[in-house]
Amino acid sequence: QKEVEQDPGPLSVPEGAIVSLNCTYSNSAFQYFMWYRQYSRKGPELLMYTYSSGNKEDGRFTAQVDKSSKYISLFIRDSQPSDSATYLCAMRGMIYNQGGKLIFGQGTELSVKP
Amino acid sequence: DTEVTQTPKHLVMGMTNKKSLKCEQHMGHRAMYWYKQKAKKPPELMFVYSYEKLSINESVPSRFSPECPNSSLLNLHLHALQPEDSALYLCASSDGRLGSGSYNEQFFGPGTRLTVL
């Protein structure tokens, strides 16, 4: 079983839809949770960063962490064609000497159709 | 300046060649990373440098040799690569100065697309 599971999609939605992207994980030591967006042939770009449980909102994006269920989500409201990309969840624990090693999900490919 | 730059953008090399990838950041970050990414896969961590010292080597073959000449620069020296090493090589950096959490926000460069013939 992988430490982080993410449905690879592809996911296709019409413009204006609400998109829900999810990851589950097995390691209860994870404390930091990130969402990255990666456009084709580009490097990943950090979208959202959450420490421990709770919600965080930034414009059209909302990140949720439910540590009791080991489940994280990214919601995109009013989706736009420019949101078409691969979305990667990433997470790690508190151990300092791991030097920033992130555990990534497989990535979900999202396509928003005009 | 919140940018990580990488050169070259594309590289084609033969199995007997020696080449180097370069990465630069001017954000004052003290942690720098090399990742390898194959198509439709997540990035795989290769190396981590913290304060210019190698802190993590994810059992990468010795034909990949990292170097951190100073706090802003990171190189990856390539020698005797195999066709299966063809991939997108990503460099990233993070603050790394303020405890465990400061490693999390990693800023990625655009990558070098490497093809080994």
Characteristic terms for this protein:
heterodimer; A: 114 residues; mainly beta; 0% helix; B: 117 residues; seven-stranded mixed β-sheet; four-stranded antiparallel β-sheet; 55% strand
Summarize the structure.
The complex is a heterodimer of chains A (114) and B (117). In chain A, 0% of the residues lie in helices and 54% in strands. Chain A has 114 residues and is an all-beta fold.
Strand content of chain B: over 45%
Question: What's the quaternary structure here?
Answer: heterodimer
End-to-end Cα distance of chain A, whole Å, is 37 Å
Shape of chain A: globular
Q: Overall 3D geometry of chain B?
A: globular
Largest sheet of chain A: 6 strands, mixed
The percent range for helix content of chain A is under 10%
Rg of chain A to the nearest angstrom? 14 Å
> Quick one: biggest sheet of chain B?
7 strands, mixed
Structural class per helix/strand content of chain A? mainly beta
Question: Total helix count of chain B?
Answer: 0
Helix content of chain B: under 10%
- Total helical segments of chain A: 0
SSE sequence of chain A, one letter per element: EEEEEEEEEEE
* Count of DSSP strands of chain B: 11
What value does the average pLDDT of chain A take?
A: 91
Distance between the termini of chain B: 36 Å
Radius of gyration of chain B: 14 Å
Word description of this protein:
- The complex is a heterodimer of chains A (114) and B (117).
- Chain A has 114 residues and is mostly beta strands.
- Chain A is 0% helix and 54% strand.
- Chain A has no helices and eleven strands.
- Chain A has strands spanning 4-6, 11-14, 19-25, 32-38, 45-51, 54-58, 61-66, 71-76, 85-92, 103-104, 108-113.
- In chain A, the strands form two sheets. In chain A, strands 2, 4, 5, 9, 10 and 11 form a six-stranded mixed β-sheet that branches. In chain A, strands 1-3-8-7-6 form a five-stranded antiparallel β-sheet, with no helix packed on it.
- The radius of gyration of chain A is 14 Å and the shape is globular.
- The mean pLDDT of chain A is 91.
- Chain B has 117 residues and is mainly β.
- Chain B has strands at residues 4-7, 10-13, 18-25, 31-37, 44-50, 53-57, 64-70, 73-79, 87-94, 107-108, 112-116.
- The N and C termini of chain B lie far apart (36 Å).
- Classes of the chains: A mainly beta (114), B mainly beta (117).
- The A-B interface holds A 8, 32, 34, 36, 41-46, 49, 51, 88, 92, 94-102, 104-107, 109 and B 4, 31, 33, 40-43, 45, 48, 50, 55-56, 88, 90, 92, 94, 96, 99-101, 103-111, 113.
